[in-house]
What we know:
Its EC number is 2.6.1.39. Residues 11-79 form the HTH gntR-type domain. InterPro entries: Aminotransferase_I/II_large, HTH_trans_reg/aminotransferase, PyrdxlP-dep_Trfase, PyrdxlP-dep_Trfase_major, PyrdxlP-dep_Trfase_small, Tscrpt_reg_HTH_GntR, WH-like_DNA-bd_sf, WH_DNA-bd_sf. By secondary structure, the protein is of the alpha/beta class. It folds into three domains: 13-76, Winged helix-like DNA-binding domain superfamily/Winged helix DNA-binding domain (Arc Repressor Mutant, subunit A), CATH 1.10.10.10; 100-122 and 364-465, Aspartate Aminotransferase, domain 1 (Alpha-Beta Complex), CATH 3.90.1150; 124-361, Aspartate Aminotransferase, domain 2, CATH 3.40.640.10. The chain contains 17 helices and 15 strands. The protein is globular and about 80 Å long. Mean pLDDT is 89; it is low at 83-97.
Amino acid sequence: MQLNLDRQRSIPLVQQLADGLRDWISSQRLRPGTRLPSIRQVVREQGVSQSCAIEAYDRLVSLGWLEARHGVGFFVAERRGQAPFAEEPAWDEGAEGRWRLFSDEQEDLLRLGCGWLPGNWRQSEEIALAIRQVSRGAEQDLFGYGPPLGLTALRQQVRKRLALIGIQVQPEQILATQGASQALDLLVRTLLKPGDAVLVESPGYYNLYNLLRLHGVRLLEVPRTPEGPDLEVMVALLREHRPRYLFINSLYQNPTGTSLTPRTAQRLLELAGEHDLRIVEDDIYADFQEGPATRLITLDSQQRVIYLASFSKTLSSSLRVGYLVAEPALVARLAEVKMITGIGASRFAEQVVAQLLGSGVYRKSVQRLRLRLAEHMASALRLLEAHGWEVFAEPYGGMFVWTRYPGVDFAGLQRIAQEQGVLLSPGSAFDPQGRDSDWLRINVAYARDHRAQGFFQAVAQASSRRPPAS
C-alpha cells in the first residue's frame, strides 16, 4: 500500500492518511468485509505515529467507509445504496451568494466579503488556555445547563465593560445569548407578530431580513446615508405605516461601515418619542471602537432603546456568546422564550468568555485588533482609490468598506474575482428585496492579500479596455 503523504503540505497528516486510505480502498475496488492492514502495519509502512493511524481509521469509520470489529481489526464497510452526502442544500442563486461564505468547500478561495476576522488574527493560545482552565474547574461548567439569564460571572463582566462606554445598567437588565443572532431572534419572537411592520436599513444585515420574513413581519426600507438613516424617508414611513420598531447598526454599520452622527442620533430619539417607536440597536462591532462614538442607548432618556452586542466577532465565531440590555420586565420575558426554544445557552462557552474578560486577555486582544484594523482600513482605502474604485463613505473604524467600480455590474466583478481566486459578497444580499446591486462589501482584514490586490487591479484594467459608450 503506497500512500503519498507530504509533511510539507498545510493539510494535517491525519487527514492526508485518511484520504489516502479511502482512495486506496476505491482504487483497489476492495469488497465489503475485506480486512485492512493493521494499525501497526500502517505505522511501519507509512512512517506515522500510532495515534495518527488510529485517528485516521476512526475517521473512516465515522464516515461509513470502514467498520471496526473489537479485537479483530478494521474492515471495508457495506456502502451499497448510500447516496453521496451533500455539504450544502440546493440554494437558489440569491441565497447561494449569501451562504457560500459559510461553506467549508473551496477553502482555497479568499473570502474578501466575509463578516469575520482571519483566524490567524485571533488569540488562539489565550483562548486555548481559558478553555483548559474552565475544563479543570467545576464539573457543572462542563456538563450543566446554563441559567436562564446567563452565568452571573459573565453578566458581571459585561456590566463592567458597558460602564466603560457610558452604558450604566443593573444586573437584571442583562441577558446572555448565543451570539447576537439569538438576541435578535428572541426579540422578534417575543415582540412581533405576523403582519407587523418594522423599519430596517437599506443596505443592511441580510440575516435580519431573513429572520423578519420568517416570522411574517413587513420590512419598511430606510436608506442608509453616511450619517445614518435617511430621516426624511423615515418620517414619511412613520406617518404612513406606524411601524413598531426600528432595527439599526449605530456603529460601523454592516455593510457600509458608516456610523451615526450625534445630530442624526438625537433626531432619531426625538422621532421615536413622537411616534411611539422602539429601537433595537445592534452594536455587534462595539469593541472595534477607536475614539469617540455615538450610541443611541447612551442618549436614551425614555428607555426606548434595546441594546445588543456579541463577542463572536472579536474572540471566535465558534464561541457563540452575546448579550442584550433592556428593562428587567422585558429581559425576564426574553429569558423565558430563550429557555422554551433552546433550554438556555452554552454554559461552557459563557464560562470561557467570562474567564477571558476577567483575566484582562480580552481587553488586550481588542486593543491589538483595533490597531491592526485601522492599518488595514487605511491601506484598503488607498488601494481602492489608486485603482479608481468608488467608496460609499470613508469609515473611521470597523472592518467594512462599501464600494463599487463605476460601470461594472456584479456579474462582471464576479467573473474577474473567480479568475483571481476571490469569493465576493454580492450587494444584492444586503438589499431587503434582494435587488441587483453593483456595490460590494469588502472586509479590509483581507484586502492586503495578493489575490485581493490582484482583483482590484484586474477590475480597473478590464474597465480601461472597454470601448467607450456610443
